[in-house]
Design brief:
The complex is a heterodimer of chains A (503) and B (157). Chain A has 503 residues and is mostly helical. Chain A has helices at 2-12, 15-33, 39-47, 55-80, 89-100, 104-137, 142-158, 164-178, 196-199, 204-222, 236-245, 247-262, 268-282, 294-318, 324-335, 344-347, 349-383, 386-405, 408-426, 432-455, 462-465, 467-502, and strands at residues 181-182, 189-190. Chain B has helices at residues 2-26, 40-62, 69-81, 83-106, 108-123, 125-129, 133-151. In chain B, 80% of the residues lie in helices and 0% in strands. Classes of the chains: A mainly alpha (503), B mainly alpha (157).
Amino acid sequence: MIAGLGKAFIDLSTPYGFWLMTIGVALGILGGALPGVSTTMTVALLAVFTFTMDPLWAIILLSAVQLGGTYGGSISATVLNIPGTPASAPTAIEGYQLTKKGEAEIALGINVFTSFMGNNMGLIMLLVTMPLFVKLSMMFGPWEMFWFGVFGVFIAANLSEGDTLKGLIAATIGLILACIGIDPIDGSPRFAFGTVYLSAGIPLIPAMIGLFGFTEVFDGLTDLKVSSFPLKKTSLVGAARLWWKYRWLSVRTSVLGYIIGVAPGIGASVSCWVGYDHARTTSKEPEKFGQGSIEGLIGTESCNMANVPGAYAPVLSLGVPGDAPTAIMLGILMLHGIRPGPMFMITHPQWLYQIVVALFIAGILFVLIGTYAGKGLVRLFVSTPRTAMAAIVAVLCALGAYATNINMTDIYTAFFFGVLGIIMRGLGMPVSPLVLGLILGADLLDVEFRRALLAGKGSIAPFFTRSVSIAMLCFIALVLFFEHAYPRIRGSRKKKDRTVILE
Amino acid sequence: MPSMDRDFRVGCLVFLFGVTVSWLSLRLPMRGDFIESPGIFPGLMGLLLTLFGAILAGRSYRKGGRLRLGHFVRAIVPFFTSTEHRSVLLGILFPALYIFVGVPLIGFYPSSALFLTVMFYLFVEKWRRRFVFLPVAIGLTVLLYLVFNKLFMLQIR
């Protein structure tokens, strides 16, 4: 392995290789940071330029774009409260609160450093555990994927500060909204009320732009008391020190992110919430969540970034893409006559090492580019009056919503969700579970539930009798016990002990 | 008490929404048994929502929450006239005019330039005094055009 990595490092350490990776990371960061231009879109746009390239360089360029884009999403989430990608939604919750407190540079420093470390940990796990996890993920049928989605709903409920019931209500509304559109199994329209637009379903990016970005615009244009946000300056070393304080959280959430990345079809948009929830439940200061929590940022970003290497495992060993950008890469490989699969890693073992080394170098490059790009953006942001910034964010929200599908109605959807976000805030309902409900409902819960029923010929028994399903159920039960029941039991015991001492 | 009233009203609304979703799910076209039909998942979610709505309403009812529609209706007029809420409505009105009137009528970039100019002129006194609001608005719009239309080759008009 060491010899393979060394050879890959020598192969890639050419001026052409560095130039390609720098371009990839820079464009990826820009694409990820711009609302509406997702990582997937940037990878797809640049894929056009790779048709004439050597397949290895093509994949290296696109993997650098993917890595840059995954990090770039957190820049706009932190500075503007607009998640550039679905995976940066929890970053918007904590990062933007830190920006409001004048700690935008700290938040971005944490994002950069945690993402770098998360990526590295994901790469180590990719090298060590790839064959094992791929075998395990192949044991997952629609029943287990459904339980995974249910686990996500419980995470969504946890995201509501204080009131789990309200979180569950918001998540269920999100799941119902995600059902709007053509049924993915038999193609019949659901809740579209005869409109063409609704037949395509609620678009996720415009909905998120509305719920996070537009609500902030309305807030910025109405709260005229705050003229601009303060700024505390920090260095990357300061951010690294903060990361070191929470290093074990970063390790745990990186492992979680990698495992979710290996399972095809789940992706970073779910794993970021898993990392966020893990950080919240294990935190000694859970009250800081939603108010600008460093732990929340670290949990989200580690999980988010470790997901990227995880997504390569099923592509390289099975030819099954882990997420949308790796699906495009698979297409590019097939265009060049290369078909990854079980034999691929035996006949072309060097590919794994070269991708690992490329992602590592790209990680160093995004630390350099991301730090300076992020700092520049933060300083520009804090020196701009808040009402002016709100107006600029409004234009970016509209542009981002429109650019997703080049559809005018998407801007109206974003605006509708912005107003919905304001109303939900007023009614004391949390917004984040609604977003997670939309994500889980669109691609996971509904589809897998129907698939499972069809595969089981209408029987719900396999949900409770398959060995992997039972393991998933036990896992969910354990998590729920430790998150809800155990703290209460411990609390009541402490109370009893105190009463005995007082008596 | 008002927060209990609010939760009670939200619970009732959620309950009604859940019932509606379940009813609409039952009316979706079926091919074979309902358990395999497209309405099964949203129907179940509707039922869950009905249950959650009932629990929320019941919980707030026990704590003294009531519907009190009279209070609610009487609070609507002050909501629109109070200074705080008027500014909220204005904050929504300007972006709404830009999105629902400006963009469809004159296109994305001209309406964005116009919206930014008006917003900077009205709300950013420092920029108005120095007369930089116009170049900043136009410069930003041109930058967005270059990034989205030229660099990322998106066909935004």
